[in-house]
Amino acid sequence: MPFEVNELPSRNMYIIIAVAVVLIAAGGGYYYLQQSQNAAALEVRRQKWETWSKTLYIGTNNYEFHPGGIDIGSATATMIYRNLIAPRMFWVDGVKSGQYNPLVGESWTQKKDADGDVYIEFKLKSGWKFRDGTPITAQNMKWNWERALNDLPNRKQNGESYAVYALEESWGLTAKKLIVPNDQTILMYTNPNWPEFQPFWKHFLFGLSYSFMFSQTLGEQYGGETNTLDDYTKIGQKGGFGPFYLDTWVANQRYTLLADPNYPVNPLGGMAGPTKAVGLNKIIVSAYGDPASLRMALQSSEIDTTWPGEIARADVPSMSKDSKLKMELIPSLGSGNQLHMNWDPKFAPLNDIRVRKAIQYAVDPYEIVDKLMFGTAAVSDSPVRPFLDFYKPVMKPIRDLPMAERITKAKSLLAEAGFPNGFTTQFWYASGVGTEAFNRDLGTILQQQLSKIGITLELKYIERGAYTDMVRAGQLPMFARGWTFDYPDPDTELFYLMHSNSPDLAKRINFNDTHVDALLIEGRQLYGKGQEARRKEIYTELQDYIIEKGFDVPLYIDGYWYAYNTYVQNYKPWMTTDEPAQGMWNISKQIPTDWATHDPPH
Amino acid sequence: MKLRYYITVRLLLAIPTIALLLTAIFFLMHVLPGDPIRIMYGEKFPTFYVEQIRHSLGLDRPLYEQYFTYLSNLAQGNLGVSLVFKIPVIEKVAQVYPTTLELAITGLILASLLGLPLGIIAAMRRDGVFDHVTRILSLYIHSNPGFWIALLFQIFFGLILGIFPISGRTPPGFELQKITGLNILDSILTLNPTAFIQSIKYLFLPCLTIALTSIPTLSRLSRASMLNVLGEDYMVTAKAKGLPDNVITYKHALRNALLPIVTSIGGTFTWLLGGTVITEKIFSLPGLGSLLMDSLMARDFLMIQGIVAIYAVIVVVMNTLIDIIYATIDPRVKY
Question: Is the ipTM value over 0.95, yes or no?
Fold first, then answer.
């Protein structure tokens, strides 16, 4: 029936309209609510991502704190502490090798007093404070340095003991030691018997790579021999003056650092030394029991990065193909171990230069790098590593020859020496967790390579402590040795290894040669005296001489693998030293573009 | 012989056993080649300080003197001070032991809950499909080393599915009032559901790993034990009497079959209490096994000596307890 204009709608029509209105209103309300909820949920998610992007998750295999004294034992924790929490006076520049930038320290000057005694005058900046509020004064520095020296028997790390050895050698026998004339000045008297060789001093003393600085007040309160973990945590929370400080520590699991929002911006930039962190407000370092777990945690984004060098070598080739990861080898980083094959030339027939040269020809480091290191190291062509001054690739002419030609040459040298059918000798290595398998494999490769020229290499191994003693005592004919970089000068590679009066603790081979000794001393004496041309001659001659006389077969230079997810930005390795935690203040994290579709990993 | 007398004798016998073990540990640690101080502090460490540390630890004294000092300290509960952690060994062990204990208890419960029924059902359905499948699976799982199972779990549940953490005991920001040190128990005691769920989440994979490594033994043993009992004359008698199957199974067969299983469970628990080194290490659980491994890596010989001594005591004490429990529950045991 047609609807007439003057006819009122029926009751049913009202009901229909009312229901429709209610439905529309409910639908609208529901839609609005959903939208609001979605918006709220999205905002919650956005905040989660924001928090995630300000937190750096690091995984490490080497995480244990050692709460003895106020020092830390594990490599990771030590680096974190001395670079992020409680740094040093001066800072080795991250790009320019050997350049020391001011931090709390303003300047250093080498001087002589009226008696002719040498001292270094340090000037401190004013206005710097530890987190507990106490000012950083010269007296505080003195306390820290004396602590570093006097507590030596409590140290554990090799690097620490070596650095403290340097302290003792430098001023341990000097009665005056450290003098504090005023709050901003400290005079460090040096041992008159110690050669004035600045790179050594600078590395161990100026930067004090060992001795990170704590508040004396807190250190005396909590830094005793038997301090508890809680005491130690308090020192980490309040005792330092770095861009980060310790927040919490869960034993054997993780430690959390917070960024200091009031930390000053370094006027020289983030690669010159510590500066205020702008991209991060938290760093969480978590423990992983083995490299496989570490890799999985990285690939699942449970962590953003691994501690440099802790990715298993065998994993590097496959991980490099993962587009979500960035893998970077830093071969020139300070602590990269340079491996050499050495021998004691007093053992016959290794006392014959022709035999030694034959071995130089027959050993193929490329095969070692390929098979043993999975391609994760750089072949070394000199006793000095490439980024140091005066480097000369002295082994390159030999190594550029085709292998067949090298074998022929080696055989003819052996024949000349009276060993046309080769001979039998021993290659020794140390047993022990972690390194024994590697050393055995290295020995096996060398055994196979030398068998091509008729040399039979018997592999022998012994417990590490006994091995070291036997090497120093000249009781082993052939062995491998590693050496890490200490300071940016070729002296760091050559003096301690090749000088006949090298200190007992640094001596790794039983090597004595008066010509080498004289050159090494002259090289040191000329440092910083405008005699760079002569120094170049000296160190070039040393490299030529050591290789020409067949005293060394440099094999490869190892490095740190940096592995991190690609969303980690501005992670620039500190190229000039061996301290990976440096530069973490520069890091930021990029929130993914599809963040709205999923929650962050944490 | 009365039970009390038997227990006293067993406990007294444990004392010379422990003393012999500790003596063996001491001399083993001292006859090993190499200078522990030089090894620990590194080659670059000055000789003067090596001597100083050796003197402070008493290592420059005659061996017999060191031995008596060691025994005397042990008698006072003093296992020495860790060279690495610089705290008493016993204190460090107390810090990490709840992790091992929690893992051992939960692992054992899970293994028992899965292993015993599997073995019993397999025995009840001897030579059936279930029996064959169970046996093959047991053999397969038993053939896989724990570290391999752990890695597979990490890959599947952690990396691919992302439903369980790859390792660790607690997540960042985990908050729980410590009462016993056992996270699950503490979260129940403090009525903290968030911590409870997080603890379960983090414990699940390691717990499943060690449970899986124990299940084959328990299931095979319970199957064999059950089959032995089912073949006994009294079972035929029970059937002849017309007793219902479930009464025969659970009242007569199972109770008797459980006796050797109790011993096995005790042995498994002893093994787990010693710290499952590989599982703890792979899942980064800070337990006794991890501590031993880390101490070996760090060459902390006082800690190693202390942990091995604790292991020895645990094994002797647990075996003594098992003997006592066995004597208590099995009326046939003569004492």
Answer: no
